[in-house]
């Protein structure tokens, strides 16, 4: 089997999470500057077998698209043209940032570490991936 990879896309940084090859466990991988995301993904997918990329779908409470969806759509077009052999799926990401922050509190991380937005993005990507896997 191949890995699943999830993205919590942001205009500045993107959190990335992956599964193991058996697609049992979701783990945070890293956070990269969004300007370097495509390069990172091309390098990662050339070394690792990835079956699918799950990209967070940000929605408002009334189920309309978030403002960031415009940027995500632009990125998705580039991603599909640069890495056409890996399917892309969207998954609702509402509340993942709040849940990530709460999980940091629950795990006892210091206030200074909880202010690390890159860590929040990575945990958010992991939550997107875990939720996606649970929905299957």
UniProtKB/TrEMBL annotation:
InterPro entries: RNaseH-like_sf (IPR012337), YqgF (IPR005227), YqgF/RNaseH-like_dom (IPR006641), YqgF/RNaseH-like_dom_sf (IPR037027)
Keywords of this entry: Cytoplasm, Hydrolase, Nuclease, Ribosome biogenesis
Transmembrane intervals: none
Assigned EC number: 3.1.-.-
UniProt superkingdom: Bacteria
YqgF/RNase H-like domain span: 2-100
Pfam families, A to Z: RuvX
SMART domains with a match to the protein in the record: YqgFc
Location of the protein in the cell: Cytoplasm
Family: Belongs to the YqgF HJR family.
Role this protein plays: Could be a nuclease involved in processing of the 5'-end of pre-16S rRNA.
Protein name as catalogued: Putative pre-16S rRNA nuclease
Provenance organism: Winogradskyella litorisediminis
Gene designation: ruvX
């Amino acid at each position: 089997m191949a890995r699943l990879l999830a993205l919590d896309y942001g205009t500045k940084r993107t959190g990335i999470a992956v599964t193991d090859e058996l697609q049992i466990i979701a783990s945070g991988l890293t956070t990269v500057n969004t300007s370097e995301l495509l390069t990172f993904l091309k390098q990662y997918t050339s070394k690792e077998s990835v079956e699918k990329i799950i990209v967070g779908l940000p929605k408002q409470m009334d189920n309309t698209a978030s403002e960031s969806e415009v940027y995500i759509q632009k990125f998705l077009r580039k991603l599909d043209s640069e890495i056409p052999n890996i399917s892309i799926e969207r998954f609702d990401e509402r509340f993942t940032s709040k849940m990530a922050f709460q999980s940091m509190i629950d795990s006892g991380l210091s206030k200074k570490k909880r202010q690390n937005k890159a860590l929040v993005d990575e945990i958010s990507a992991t939550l997107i991936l875990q939720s996606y896997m649970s929905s299957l």
